[in-house]
């Protein structure tokens, strides 16, 4: 497929080519099996979490409402990424149009900003629950949670919205073979034959303003949580308080570790292994939606009991 079509001196809209695992094209069909399983588990797991939280009035608490927001975001990420991945591995369909690629990267980056915001809200929820247990219900009321959620939703959309517009002004005259099985801003902008410095600066700005700021505030929240917990006289109560944060800490590690690793490789790891980039890319987008329902189901006794009750019936 030609990366760009020329006609009467004008470069027409390019067709990008997505990539699977280089050199492993003969086993792509077998490779599709784990991706299909991850897709099904992510969709079913997050849908079950949403269903149980919605139908059980005892779970209409701030912690579970934030968890349901996280589940919605994870569902969106799975729906935005897995179809193009399965298209490559099941049908060897690598082409993606200009508009579809930009739409996909908009949804991927917006949803990741929103997920980062949800993790920040969940850290704040844990801080309030441990530091102000008597005022917990009065601080995190349902209307206030709704307003905060809306603000973070609009923040994610507003910050990411310029990215497709900035990419659309470029001409793409290189071999437009992307590094991943989906479109992300860092990957697409490298395909341009124009000056990408504005995109690079704005991409760094969006990362610092969303993931960078959120991770800093999450860290400060846990510093305050630890400070509060250390003031608790009883070691048993101290451990009980920290135990309520374990699921959230696991979710933070699952989300931020591969994202930071992939961002560093894209910007500074020019000599890094392509396979490492691809592996981190899959972990970065597919593992959090898969693991978050499992982590919270295992750690939350109430949620686990409700899930067992639903499936036993």
Automatic annotation (TrEMBL):
It is a multi-pass membrane protein. Residues 45-296 form the G-protein coupled receptors family 1 profile domain. It is found in: Cell membrane; Membrane. Pfam families: 7tm_4 (PF13853). Gene3D superfamilies: Rhodopsin 7-helix transmembrane proteins. One of its GO terms (molecular function) is olfactory receptor activity. Keywords: Cell membrane, G-protein coupled receptor, Membrane, Olfaction, Receptor, Sensory transduction, Transducer, Transmembrane, Transmembrane helix. SUPFAM superfamilies: Family A G protein-coupled receptor-like. Its main location: membrane. GO terms for cellular component: plasma membrane. Belongs to the G-protein coupled receptor 1 family. This is Olfactory receptor.
